Amino acid sequence: METKKQVILTILLCLMCLILPTQNIIVYADININRDESAQSNNIPLNMIYPLCYEFEINGEKYFYSTNSNNGPLRYDENEFDFFVKTDAISGFKCHDYLWTGEYYMARYHCDDDVPASWQTYKAFPVRLYDKNFNLINEHIFDKYVYKIAYYNGEYYCKHQDGWVSSPDFDAWSDCPAPPTEFTNNIVSCKDGMLSFDNLNYFKVQYEQTAPEINHILGDYIFGSYAKNAYAVSSDNIYFLKLIMPSSRGTEWVYFKDDNVFFEGKSSYYGYYNDYQRYYMSINELDEELEKYRSAPYLVHNGELLAFEQPPIIQDGNTLVPIRFLFEQMGATVEWEQSTQTATISQNNTTISFNINNPVARVNGKNAAMNIPAQLINGKTMVPVRFLSEELGYTVNWNGDKRIITIE
Length: 408
Description:
This protein has 408 residues and is mainly beta. It folds into two domains: 2-17 and 26-183 and 212-293, no CATH class; 297-407, Copper Amine Oxidase, Chain A, domain 1 (2-Layer Sandwich). It is built from seven helices and 37 strands. The strands form eight sheets. Strands 14-15-16-17-26-25-37-36 form an eight-stranded mixed β-sheet. It has a five-stranded antiparallel β-sheet with strand order 29-30-31-32-33, with helices on one face. It has a four-stranded antiparallel β-sheet with strand order 1-24-23-22.
């Protein structure tokens, strides 16, 4: 039944692409997503290493997650696990969520993250700092339940019911925006809100649409979400593969088991319902779809990486990019005439017009041959970037080793 729904959704999206080629249409990946109807919290297909805690591996690295926390998997270290998880019954400080800042461990008290009603039974919610030998260094008591912690660029962050707060010293806390995501994998490094492919040159990223909220980073997989049932997977935090789950309630945990990746969790609403869910998909299918994004070229303009909703593609040695986002970033005017399927770009004293699937463009009224025609791909008008950019007076450079196109 779920597969049939996905087929219908795909057909509708394709029809929309024909009607609205320049609109922002989110196209979801064609991956078979299955639901385990027998899913319960007591039949998770992983090895339970402690009550409520389960382990799994990805690329030879061990992780664990707790079904009592919605902050996702943590890398498994025996000493950290023994202290922060196994000793909570002794210390009275319940902690299945902690992180290493480079100097201290930061840990939060938790009850059940998914049941806000349970938060009311407690009046004090500690967040603590420990040194590398697990000695208590500092503690701050919040009067609101803290359900997420982070550390970024010398600042400690906590998220409670009223939003994010931060502190440079763990004593004075103030309201703040969410901290940037910082990570390094085999493809890209993210630091200070910027991305690098070589840990030397960092780029600010301009997203065509709002980037998803990053939930889990497991090896070279970056998992994010747009809404309760709209997920995204990426390898580089630039191009995101969209996934739509059959349910609208969302899941909290992601893990790998055998040949599948699982999305799992319990959905609660102030304690009034508790619907346990488990979805899974083939890792091979996911990798096949991701490979289309992993092989896509990157485009830099004015020192900024452009994160297209539809990644650029290479055909016959020519790179096609979505027209509107790129050329509006370059300061050009982009117009679309649906009846003739004609796109027009204007900047300074140059006007370029062309039709879909026609290799002949018009530059200030004169014919000009393109190596490859403009095309409609997933609802986006894709154009040969070198031809149009150079006709507008820009210089286009290609770094084949890093797959980076630079427009200056």
